[in-house]
Amino acid sequence: MRCLSFTLFWILSILVLALPEAFAAQSKKPKVAAAPLPIYEAPMRVVVVRNSFPTCEPDCPQWISAEGEITSATPAAFRRVFKQIGSKNLPLVIRSPGGSINAAIEIGNMVRKRKMTVAVGFTLYRGCRPDEKDCKLPKEAKGIYAGSIAEYSAFCNSACPMILAAGTTRLASSVAYVGLHQPKTEWSREWLRWRETYRIVNGKKKILKRTIISRKTVKGKTTYGLDKGLRKKMGNYYKTMGVDLAILDEMMRAKYEDMYWLPDAGRDKLRLRTSVGSAAALGNVSGVKPAVSGIESCTIKGAQYVGEICKTEKARVAAAVVAKPIVPEMTVRLARLAESACGAKCPSWIVLDGRITAATPAQLEAFAKKLGRKHAVVVLNSPGGDVDAAIQLGRTIRTLGFDTAVGRSISVKGDQDKSEVFEAVYPGFGLCRGSCLMAYVGGKRRHIDSADSSQIQDPFAGVDVQNVGVQEMKMERHVNYMGADSDFILTFSRSPDAFKAGVPASRLLGDRIATDTLLDWKSSELAFQ
Predict the structure, then answer these.
(1) Tens digit of pLDDT for each residue in 269-285?
(2) How do residues 385-425 score in pLDDT, each as one tens digit?
(3) H helix or E strand, kind and range, residue 118
(4) Measured between alpha carbons, how far is 505 from 490 in angstroms, rounded to an integer?
(5) 406 with 427: CB under 8 angstroms?
(6) Which pairing describes strands 144-150 and 45-51: parallel, antiparallel, or unpaired?
(7) Distance from C-alpha of 393 to C-alpha of 434, rounded to nearest angstrom
(8) How far apart are CA 283 and CA 47, in angstroms?
(9) Residue 168 · residue 193 · CB < 8 Å
């Protein structure tokens, strides 16, 4: 037997098929230095989150939060989290613009194996956020973040529905979006140069070793849509997950640059969702069960308590009901400064005093119409009230073109002419707490007393803990819509105790919540007339 050993160099040209990638048709915004990437640009972050409200102790709900673009590194992120939670069967709350189809399939297979619930939604964090590099979780948190679940305007686009399809229970409510479009396949040509060591044994070539010594990628091509191979691959996956294969045809409704939004009926017809339930309910404290059987449990205002906590909370709520003052519903009236020097030319303003209710926006609109003024300052003194009504009140104020300020209007002479109340205003005694902020930011100009830092207080005061995630999203969007910095709201969600006693004027001005300081209520510059 003759054995010959040779080392040869081969230069070959091969075609490499890049993994199909499907990205959401979202326009990319300029990146701001040191700021977290927008959700449609950032790679997916996968973490474990626990409901952050103390009312659900000791068994607060937990879930897996997955937000961002699905990349080739995302399956590994899921494996790390699955290792962290062990055998726990936590629901998955996902918000994603899409990404790699191959990675989505790999993740989907892991999710189905664990028989998980998947919901379209997102997490509102309290304290540390996973995208904040300078914020570290305390050791006792054991790698678990704190937050609540919201779903208003959440989205699951492109390759993301493949992960949604993997859930044994699949939730995508009518306030969340599910988007489909044609996938994109990127082809590239790669030149490889390798060294091969082989031996001839009985006249036949036997390769002993092959080492790549260089590679060079040259320009390839990009195709859109479903070729035969990709259609078969995705079809087999969706069939395994129990989704109607008509979803492949639905994908072709929109080009890669566009998006086809699946209506509720379409989600049900394709079996892409199995329930019309809410993602927010997965983190709802009302679903908590006592940790130990036989221990006294009770439900108070939708929250579950156990043992001594139940007794203590019952007593606290009972005491609060007795001690809680009844705040009258908001009234609307006209006031004019009581100064003999200016007489009939004294500045006047609209007073909004009391608790905001669903009727308040219409009351102000009717009063303004009767008043017939193109400009006025609305002076608020309110402990808050209905969040949705406060948002509508803010929009009514903006539509009317009125300014806002915070102050307490006190009658000093009474109703003299049955049309106006002559009053004095004391800015330092005014209060805008809770949802009142939503009305305040509606002002075209928003005045604040520079000498007092207790006028604007905790915007979450009085908000039901069961709906805080949804309400926070609404408040954030409203503040942003009014031209103020929505991070002001996030400050309170991340640090619940921040500025509860009042926000300094400098902070209000810096976040564009207020536009200017109110140094002199008698100043003609305020144009109260």
Answers:
(1) 999 999 877 887 787 64
(2) 999 999 999 999 999 999 999 888 877 654 444 445 556 66
(3) strand 117-120
(4) 18
(5) yes
(6) parallel
(7) 14
(8) 15
(9) no
